[in-house]
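worker-3 :: picked UDP-N-acetylglucosamine 1-carboxyvinyltransferase
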Amino acid sequence: MDKIIVKGGNTLNGEVKISSAKNSVLPIIAASILSGNKCIIDNAPMLEDVFVISDVLRSVSADIDIDKTSNKIIIDTSDICDYEPCSELVKKLRASFLIMGPMISRFGKFIISLPGGCNIGTRPIDLHLKGFNALGAEVSVGYGYVEAKAKKLIGNKIYLDFPSVGATENIMMAAVMAEGETIIENAAEEPEIEDLAKFLNSMGANVIGGGTDTVRVLGVKNLKGAVHKPIYDRIEAGTFMVAAAITKSKIKVCGVNEEHLKPIIAKLTEMGVVIEVEGESLTVDGTGILKPIDIKTMPYPGFPTDMQAQMMGLLSSVKGTSVITETIFENRFMHASEMKRMGANIKIDGRSAVIEGIDRLTGCEVKSTDLRAGAALILCGLAAAGTTEVTDVYHIDRGYVNIEKKLQGLGANIYRECY
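worker-3 :: tokens ->
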């Protein structure tokens, strides 16, 4: 097992290059099933989650070649002949469930174990299944598995009770070869959904409104292979923006889309961080005096839940009282107890966290409870007095490409150690 050691106190400087978005690449890999031909993903992030979902596709006889040198993934789904992926792999990664829509669409039958993922709260699949049912699939759940059968999928109007990202993506992919038109209302609007729609359209699909609250899918008879370069990872970019603020540093973040980062930029600016955008790069200046703020996580374009833990770490060192309200997941404050081990003054009241900023955190051994929590604890370690040891870093490796090396490039005293 690995742990990440952080010796706090260094000022950061220089440039960091952001990788492609994990949350964009995973559904795109799943969507490649629809083509039955060769698809190529350029500049893919070499992450554990990417490797796991690739293995899930391999378990149904897809051929996948991952070139870690060129960051290219070549996927050939022409020989898929199995309709039940390896359950142990599926349980490792919640995004594995995203292959259900494409498999039902192309083959008319599929069985999959209930998905796994970070333990950050209830993430039901009922909206996914509601969408499949509306398209004409017969869906049954039992003994830890979901099974779906459909002689033919027929387009329909589907209203999502909550703008679920995964459900929006899965229903979109199921609908691309359904007969007629499918309309998804109250759809999730995340940039990653727009990116998936672009990939589907490059394969010959007819998806209109991806990334808006109403998505229209006009069914086509078949799809072809495609080449695609995913969008930048807005959460990784936000994490490095917070790294500048928490260490009172000035750095340049390269590989961003300003539109995707608006809620993060707005909150950091409200705190007193100076951010200048120039094309696909931005300069983050956190050297000034920062002030406390209130944050409420919301579906996009609101403040992302995936940045909540990082902001909590930052606010722990900002004098005054801040309040974070988490509306997406009910169990996403587990990192607070780890930050309190570092001296943070955080009180949890239901779905709100009240943070009283202190002068400085102190390093100690802490546990990464989930992906974003692990990144947040590294950020806390950068600013803390002494040494911080972050364990269970396999969570972090699921969503950040070489995070310690990128921070080393900015001047942080951080390294990985096997124990």
